Amino acid sequence: MGFSDWFGGAELKARITGLENELSQARTVAVEAKRDAEEAKKRASEKGRAADEAREAKNRAEKKTEKVQSIRDV
Fold first, then answer.
1. Domain locations in the chain?
2. What tens digit of pLDDT does each residue of 33-53 get?
3. Cα 69 to chain center, whole Å?
4. Which of 35, 37, 42, 52 is 20 to 30 A from 61, alpha carbon to alpha carbon?
5. pLDDT of 46-72, one tens digit each?
């Protein structure tokens, strides 16, 4: 009676193969999740820059409005 017979060699091999397939799928999902996270980070960074630029534009517009108002007040 060999080792594989004792522990049900065919079932054990099938189980190992199944676990290897699950591990492969998990790795694929992890790689995709990492890529998605990097893309989300990039989009957030771009939105942050756009928000900064919008604030700067608003500040410039307010300063110009203040200048125009001060000229009118004179």
1. 3-73
2. 999 999 999 999 999 999 999
3. 46
4. 42
5. 999 999 999 999 999 998 888 888 877
